[in-house]
Amino acid sequence: MSTMTKVFVVLNCVMAIVLSCLTVAGAAGWANSQQLVQTEQRRADAESVRARQVEATAAANLAIKDDAIQERDRLLATAAQERARLDEQLATLRNELAKQTNMAVAAEAGRKKLEEILGVQTAELTNTQKQNQVLLAQSIELQTRNQRLSSRLLEVTGQLTIATDQARNLTEKNYALEQQLREKEQALASGRRVAAAPETPAGVMAVSPLVAGPIRGEIVNLDGRYASLNIGETSGVVAGMTFMVYRDGEYIGDLQIDTVRPKESGAKVVLVAKDRVVQVGDRVVYGYE
Question: How many CB atoms neighbour CB 205 within 10 A?
Fold first, then answer.
């Protein structure tokens, strides 16, 4: 065998060994590559799953954020509406405050004006009170004088009424005596016997006996505190009796008989009920049923 052949054989062997080595190495590399690819594929799948999870989580978070943004927008819109309403209320309150301020200023001005007027009125009132006090003192003095004059006038009027009643009583008695004297003269002229009349002691007035039951009458005239009644001796009235005065069944006061005549009598008002006044036409009663 030649050297070239040997070399060729050796090269073939070397090439076969190299090829075998390469084949083994390639097979090993392929297997490693396949394994690496599978590992990477698994890793890629895992990353894809994780990415999808992250994406889903992000989508969920995004949806939540969208909801939150919508809720915030809704709250912002509500807040804007509330702010607009509050702005309107604030404007209204400012207008009202301005009105109240103007009214307060006007009221203060009016108060000052009223204080000035009140000061003037107070001064005038003080003046008037002083004048009133002077006039009141003068009025009291005049009233006192009038009361004295009225009392004196009542006293004189009463005395005059009593004197008038006494004169009338004397006139009636004189007329009665004249009648008796005329009757006596006629009796003497005709020759009849005249019965002597019982003498009445001086200062004693003969009166009729008191009648049974109450004595009722009426005030027919009134002069101050002196009243004239339409009842007299024939009704049983005597001086000193106290009659009660009534009007429509209501007690008015008391009268005390002063002078008595056959058909009428005079009395003084001795007592008057509170807020009552004796008047002509009032009924008078003495005694009880």
Answer: 12
Which of 234, 236, 209, 224 lies closest to 267 in space, CA to CA? 224
Number of Cβ atoms within 10 Å of the Cβ of 38: 10
Residue 47 in tokens: 């990353």
220 close to 284: Cβ distance less than 8 angstroms? no
Residue 271 three-state SS: strand
Overall domain count for the chain: 1
pLDDT of residue 134: 86
Residue type, 231: I
Please check whether residue 218 is in contact with residue 229, taking contact to mean a CB–CB distance below 8 angstroms. yes
Q: Which domain holds residue 285?
A: 212-289
CATH for 261 = 2.40.10.340
| Distance (Å) of CA 60 to CA 50, 57, 90, 268 | 15, 5, 43, 122
Cα–Cα distances in angstroms (integers) from residue 65 to residues 50, 71, 72, 76, in the given order:
21, 10, 10, 16
| pLDDT per residue as tens digits for the range 14-63 | 788 878 887 877 777 787 778 888 888 888 888 888 888 888 888 888 88
**Does residue 267 fall inside a structural domain?**
yes
